[in-house]
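Two entries, shown back to back:
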Amino acid sequence: MRRHLAARGERVADLARLLARSALDTNPVPDWDHVTKVDPEAAKKLPLLYPLWLSETDAVSVGGSADVTPENTAAAFDLLTPLSTPVCHEPSGADHVTKQSHEAADLLLVPEVLNGDSEALVGTLGAAVESVREDLAPALIDEKAPWLPGSVADWLANVATSALLADAAFEAYIVQNPDSAAAREAGVGSEDVLSPGEAKRRAMAADRHLESEILYLEYSGTFGDDEAVEALSRMDDALVRSRVWYGGGLSNGEDVQAVREAGADTVVVGDAFHRVAEREAEILQAAEERLDAGADPETIREWVDDRVAPDGPGARFLSTVPGVDDPLALACEYTGATVRAWLELRDRRERASERDEGIPVIDIQRTALRAALAPVVDDPDRLAATVARAALSGREEGVGDGSRGSEQLSLSLFDGGASH
């Protein structure tokens, strides 16, 4: 009888939850317009003043499909955690979720690929649950209450596992570029690419049965064009709760507008952001040769304006952000601030080297670096110190707090400014 009543009570609770899902927006994932994906892979760099560029996006997602490790993930979080912008963690491996990343991330995104092999859906999820249950949850329990008896700690680890997973957002992917690293990781071949109708049906299953908080249509490095627009249009009225994210090949405002009008709640931009750092490295190396450390702001502005183009990476990335009215002007402003900060840091490094002082100690209060960051972050002193340590440190030296942030930036002053 008690079991019968319990089952009936659970059905009533489920019905109430379904009614709430249909009538209210119960999705814990905010309705962001724009998310920037930061790949911790060593080859994917951040602009020196990355907080300026990332102040324009609604959220940052940390994750990638190739060459991502717990170490470079930790380095990325070292740099990104001080931002005012929310930072999500999208791990590509269960061991990437650590106590540090759990504390640093505002939201954990658990990927599940709907058109990949079974490992990409069930196997990956199983590995994630196992890692939480056997590693992360017991470690958290042991840290908080090491005096608990083993049986109680084990029971609490079960509860903590369920709680941690309940706080995560499940991200149901439809991977549509079989030549991408994401497709290789998920076992998606050309025969697994879905038609718009098939994509809609998978999306409905993820929304109503898997209860995925995010439905992610992913073209990974290429723009889905008319096919993506049709798939998004079909999903638009078919999903009840899932947020629809689109990612792949977005590098201008026109493509962003097309997918948003078709039904994408959120656009995700990754490669376009990392290309900003690639171009920035070239500009900073040229600035070292052409500009003095004491160059006045007007001279720097004119020099930068000649090197930042309307179709360059900076303006193109900013054009993908809804609400940025003049991407070119903003790209020039941010690049100019970067050049001023870089020349000052380089000058201090050179003067310290002449005095054989090693890594110089910088009074952050009187730097172009802090002045640039002050308008966009809550704690400019902390973030300016983080960026300065990364820029002034080398690959082998790391930074003062033990992180390896220098490997993430477009340039480091290590070895005379050569990028790595």
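entry 2 starts here
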Amino acid sequence: MEKAGFDIANVKIKFAAKFPEHPLTKILLSEPNVLTKDEFIAKTQTWLAFFNGDEEDGKN
């Protein structure tokens, strides 16, 4: 099985620069710089839910 992955280092840097105080910044920066395809898909869904949930101000 091929171990190629997605390099998210640039995404982490750009997100941290644009949203330095956002709680998701700490989470992203703690992630490894390279993720497998499956890790990337799973984490992206979680990151988006976390990012969008912050804008909802606790309202579902």
